[in-house]
Design brief:
Structural class: mainly alpha
Low-confidence stretches: none
Oligomer: single chain
Distance between the termini: 49 Å
Mean pLDDT: 90
């Protein structure tokens, strides 16, 4: 573990993440016993300056320090998932507690207002209404609003009403899923992006909850995975925001989930075509027509899942490239400003 920790800057990102997950799981099996003070100097994302260091040494030391900081932070975040926030707060020495993410509490003040509360009261508790009644009430409250605003309002109400446990979201969303799907389709990508932003704002700084709610919204086909990528990987207004985005656990966990699901779906579709082709080639005279139809359906699904995977990879690459180029521009602007200041 110590050898990996010391050389964490040299590992592939996927290997880095997997080792973080494994080590947190290992600690879970041994009561989270670890000499956390060994990592104390990496509680701060930036290293302490050392007198006499040249620029190259400073840069290399900063890179290694940053990766060790991310390793320690990632392990602690996943330990919280295996235990609880309060448990890890007590387990860590005070010098290391800055590595904990925010306490898993929703920022209801950001997504909740009078309209959201009104809609939430129609979909939760003993007074919850049937789907048609909720739709009528929603349209009464938003008579002059666009479809996009209705969709976002309903999603905010579902998110606000499901803060206590993860299962609350599943129960509420599944009860009104046909209405949610209809509003999502009518609102288009603009409304879907606002819905994703609402989930991110509600659970800002709480990776486990952010990943869960976005994952369920994609699984239930409330928002497309491509839209989630577009929101997660936006160009940043500053280098600090860019660094926060690319270092956030939820960013890469969501990306991994999106890619894994797209790859699994394409692989399953390919296997289905293989089986259907075999069955069609061995069908009897009475079975032949049905088996050919099954093969055509399998090929259509294969085409759809392959196109989805290609689109996902294309959007991911485009967004990451755009973010990188934007960050280079921001760095160049900052260096130019520093040069102007030094020149004056």
């Amino acid at each position: 573990v110590n050898e990996f920790f010391e050389n964490s800057h040299a590992f592939d990102p996927e290997v880095f993440d997997r080792f973080v997950e494994w080590f947190a799981y290992h600690l879970n099996n041994f009561g989270f016993q670890w000499n956390w003070l060994d990592w104390m100097e990496y509680a701060n994302p930036e290293p302490e300056p050392i007198a006499g260091d040249d620029e190259e040494s400073k840069k290399n030391r900063a890179v290694m320090h940053r990766f060790r900081h991310l390793f320690a932070k990632g392990v602690i975040e996943r330990c919280v998932r295996h235990s609880s926030y309060d448990f890890m707060m007590n387990q860590l020495p005070p010098e290391m507690r800055s590595l904990l993410s925010n306490k898993p509490e929703p920022h209801l003040e950001i997504v909740t207002d009078g309209l959201v509360e009104s809609v939430k009261n129609t979909i939760t508790g003993k007074s919850k209404l049937e789907m048609d009644q909720v739709k009528d009430e929603l349209y009464k409250l938003t008579a002059e609003a666009e479809e996009k605003d209705r969709f976002v309002l309903l999603i905010k109400a579902v998110l606000s009403g499901s803060c206590k446990t993860f299962s609350h979201f599943d129960i509420i969303a599944e009860r009104y899923l046909p209405l949610i799907h209809a509003l999502s389709a009518a609102s288009g990508e603009a409304g879907q992006r606002d819905a994703v932003r609402a989930a991110l704002a509600l659970w800002a700084g709480v990776p486990q909850h952010t990943c869960y709610y976005l994952g369920r919204m994609m699984m239930m086909q409330i928002v497309p995975s491509v839209v989630v990528l577009q929101v997660l990987l936006q160009n940043s207004p500053s280098v600090l925001v860019f660094r926060h985005t690319v270092e956030a656990t939820e960013t890469w966990e969501c990306i991994r989930t999106i890619l894994s699901r797209a790859i699994s779906a394409a692989s399953a579709a390919n296997n289905r075509v293989t089986r259907a082709a075999y069955d069609a080639s061995h069908a009897t005279e009475g079975e032949e027509e049905q088996k050919i139809r099954d093969l055509e359906e399998a090929r259509e699904q294969q085409k759809a899942t392959t196109e989805h995977l290609e689109t996902t990879v294309k959007v991911l690459f485009e967004r990451l490239l755009s973010m990188y180029l934007n960050s280079c521009e921001l760095v160049a602007q900052a260096e130019n400003q520093d040069s102007v200041v030094d020149g004056t």
